[in-house]
Amino acid sequence: MTARRSLCVRNQRFYVSDLLGVIVVAVSLMLSGCQSAKAPTADRSQPVVGGTIPALLAQGRNDQARKLAQQTVETVRAQRGRDSLEEARALEIVALTQEAGGDLTGAIVTLRRSLEIVNRKAPESVRHADALTALAQRLQKQGGHKEAVTHLKRAESLYQQQRKSDTVEASEARRALAESLMVHGRFSDAEGRFRRLLESGTLGKKSRPALMNGLGAALQGQGKLSAAEKLFKQAISEATTARALAPGQTNLASLYLNQGRPHAAVPLFRHALKTQREQATSGAQQQRALGEAYNNLGAALSATGDLDEAQTALNRALVTLQGSDRTAALNNLAALKQKRGDDVSAQQLYHQALELLKRRWSDDSPTLIPALNNLGTALERQGKRAEAERTFKQALSIADRHLSRTHPLRADILGNLAWSEAGRGDGKAALRHMRQAVEIARQRLARLGLSDLRTRSGSTPMRRFHPLFSAYLALLQRVEAPESESVTAIQLAHITETAAVASRMAARYAAGDPALAALTRQHQDQLATLQQLDDALADGTLTDAERRTLKQQLTTLHRTLDRTESALTRRFPRYAELAQPLPLSQKQAQALLAPDEALVLLFSGEEEGYVTTITRRSAKTYSVPWRAERVNRTVDRLREALVPQATLLPFPFKEAHALYRAWLQPFLSRSPDVRRLLVVPHGGLGKIPLSLLITEDPGASKPAHTQAPWLIRTHALSYLPSASVLSGLRRYAKDSSAPKAFLGIGNPVLNPSKHSRFRTLSQPGESTKRLLELAPLPETADELSAIAKILGEGKLLLQQEATEKSVRQERLDRYRILSFATHAVKPNELDGVDEAGLILTPDGTDGMLTTGEIARLRLDADMVMLSACNTAAAEGGIGAEVFSGLAKAFLHAGGRSTLVSFWPVLSEPTVELTTGMLRHLARHPKAGRAQAHRQAVLEMIANQNNAHPTIWAPFALVGEGGG
């Protein structure tokens, strides 16, 4: 199955719609673990051929079976005359033998003839429904899902009319219809059918894995990823044969791949391919399944960067697949060629994919839109701008006729068209079309940003528009536009799921009304329906009447949403401002800043980077001639030198200064009054604390760590997921009103025979059963006790009390400061655990407080201190956002700021840093938490034993919003 997605893959400035190359193939593979579709049911009163033909087919004697079936047709004609129902039944048996012999086209022709007879002799009957289903199932195998949908809808209606909806035959029709609906993005419709099939059990126990895969794919298509993953895993566990196992593995791997976890996907795809190879025959269906398995593996390998093996697999897919089944592989191979800079080959491949689609659909079908968009990007990359613009305009014309005005695909095309126009020097037209594209994104985010919705692939709606906003930012640097527009553009490029979560956290401070919560839930449900209707409009199988109905439903839904949003505004006027992660204006941002503060927004793009700096008096955006690849390479070099070891590694001062010189010096060199930086990082720049950058050229010498010009010597730094979070934190999230000062949780009961200086696991992939084998951290008890003494009061949950149960039972919203001093794990660091977490004393639970569990806590804390390792790590794989793990969870739970770590921390220096920070905060509360952190660090740097940045630099403050 080619899942229908609106996501786009960035290619330089262009948005390549990967709708043709998405990897989930549930429809074609999920049934491979079940019996083949049954032979059409005979006129139930009189079997024609008994068991002879099935027996011959079972023995592989296809020619003899076909001859016998044809003789049966002739006999029936002689006895009953032409065009009898008995002849129709005999023709269906002939079709079965043709299909078994590999002649699927001949079988379809024969089934059409059978259907004509039944339509005349027994219209509106169960027999008619059986014949429609038989033809539709074979059409599906040839990729003829558009016609199959028509026949299966009619069959479903007939079974209902005849009150036969619970029969095996009706269930087979319902399953087939669900499969074809998913091919065209009708996931919500398919979900209901799969659920009924599972609940009824009509198709038997052996069908359950296939139906679970189908339901999982339908849920994934609606962005319900957690539920989909559970179903895929359950399908794998219930599979009893290798053939039944492969679809679940394929679907689970596809989910991982679309979540940006290709390394987890590749082994599953390899196993599925192995199964298909072992079972492959010359039959068209088996060859198709084999080709799709090659395509899946190729796409996953391409995502891991293994382009040579990926190309081999994709080429095998193209050799194996036939007709329109080749479009996904063509699209994936074209994208791979673009990665390698072979734009000519990419153009040819995209063109082939487009031509295949044109043969299958009309020239005006919305199914062509992503293919035209992809072809346009390949033409643009070759400098064929006139041809590219014609292609984009053709795609836009189809989109305008078939899709809603705010459909994401329209934004993709308009953005690509704008960049092409800019390339030929028409800045005015480029800016006009780019603004139209951005306006679509604004409107989508104004609503979708309020929800927890995800796209089918697992990306958030916010992340889906990143390529567009990046191109917008680049365009503004090349044409005449007001500076305030660049301020908006870079904030749009920063909008992430983390920002949305943090904004909802700020809204919750000011809300608290159960009725408002119910209204918000209603609003999110309406948004989910909006996304489903938009997806449905891109379905090429819709009739004009169905499309008009959907557009009418969209119009009505938009009116309903307007009323709901008006109600939200009346009940809580600040709700939209707080909960939507939309940009601050330049004036709004400036009003939130103190005279010595600057808001610094960094963006690391594929071709170049951008920095926007905002102070009370000015705003400026400048470009940085560093590709994202260079940023990542430099950051990785720094991180390699910061890994804690018995002997600390030499620090790369030159690289640290190069980053500073390129990204911050242009601003700080002309801003002597700025002493506090509120940084919104992006990409690789979010993988290190900027406090360790070097502000002066070290030259050939390597300064002593105690004397080095670290950025933290001159500036206090704190971090924000987005600029919009600052508004909520400073204007609405006032200081905590909690009555108690401090709660500390730490020193969990672990293996006393072990000792470690690090608060992390020894190696990835350890089992949760090994939590008890982790080294204890007795010094954390001293750390927490010292903090309690500094603050004058506090409660400690140590050793046997440091459990999940104790944390949940505690009134956490009664404490202004919380500290967790323990081991931490990153996502997937433990087998079977894909969330980050904090290790506690096992008490009958798994002994770990995960991000999902943390987000459900209720806090009213000025600060949460995560005195553990890697707590700033992004959640998930490639493409995960900065601060999207534990920091996000505590923001969501109600922590105004969170102290997080970027790498494994040493226990003893961590005690010194945290206690020092709180000591300064107690002495000078108005100075702020970032300044307290800075002072504690400077004290550590002054001590030669602690001056290496591995020791003092791992911690950073996220989310500080006030004094």
Secondary structure topology:
Blueprint: E1 8-11, E2 14-17, H1 26-29, H2 52-58, H3 62-80, H4 85-100, H5 104-121, H6 126-141, H7 145-161, H8 168-183, H9 187-200, H10 208-221, H11 225-238, H12 242-258, H13 262-279, H14 284-304, H15 307-320, H16 327-339, H17 343-360, H18 369-381, H19 385-402, H20 408-423, H21 427-448, H22 461-464, H23 466-476, H24 483-494, H25 497-510, H26 514-537, H27 544-571, H28 575-579, H29 586-591, E3 597-604, E4 609-614, E5 619-624, H30 628-640, H31 653-663, H32 665-668, E6 676-680, E7 716-719, H33 723-732, E8 740-748, H34 779-791, E9 795-799, H35 804-809, E10 815-821, E11 824-825, E12 837-839, E13 848-850, H36 851-855, E14 863-867, H37 886-893, E15 898-901, H38 907-923, H39 929-941, H40 949-952, E16 955-958
Helix pairs in contact: 2-3, 3-4, 4-5, 5-6, 6-7, 6-8, 7-8, 8-9, 8-10, 9-10, 10-11, 10-12, 11-12, 12-13, 13-14, 14-15, 14-16, 15-16, 16-17, 17-18, 18-19, 18-20, 19-20, 20-21, 20-23, 21-23, 23-24, 25-33, 25-37, 26-27, 34-38, 38-39
